[in-house]
Amino acid sequence: MMDEVVYRIIAILGLVVVVLGNYFSLKTNTRKKYTYLLFVVGAVCLLLYSVSINDVIFTILQAVVIVTSLIEYYIVHIKKSKSPKIKQ
């Protein structure tokens, strides 16, 4: 019973974090800093919840969201910072 409540709180936290990520994606200045990491944190919370309720489809979906968000984070932050800067 208590475990169910904890997992529901984790799911709500995940939803709130994903919504924050979407909010930050609308703001051009903060998009690159926070969006993808918020998506990863929210998706991990939702992944924990989906595993707790034994929902295979939702678990796979959250795993895909985590992987794609990490790829986007890599492209935006790490790959971009390694590319040579062109002076104009």
Instruction: Give Rg in angstroms.
Output: 16 Å
Hey, roughly how much beta strand do the residues contain? under 5%
Unreliable stretches (pLDDT < 50, length at least 5) are none
Write the element-wise H/E pattern from the N-terminal end onward: HHH
Quick check: average pLDDT?
85
For the record, the count of structural domains works out to 1
Distance between the termini: 62 Å
What coarse outline follows from CA principal-axis ratios?
A: elongated
Entry summary:
The chain is built from 3 helices and no strands.
Layout of secondary structure:
Layout: H1 2-26, H2 31-52, H3 56-82
Describe the structure.
- By secondary structure, the protein is an all-alpha fold.
- The chain has one domain (2-82).
- The chain is 84% helix and 0% strand.
- The chain has three helices and no strands.
- 20% of the residues are buried.
Keywords:
single chain; 88 residues; mainly alpha; 3 helices; elongated
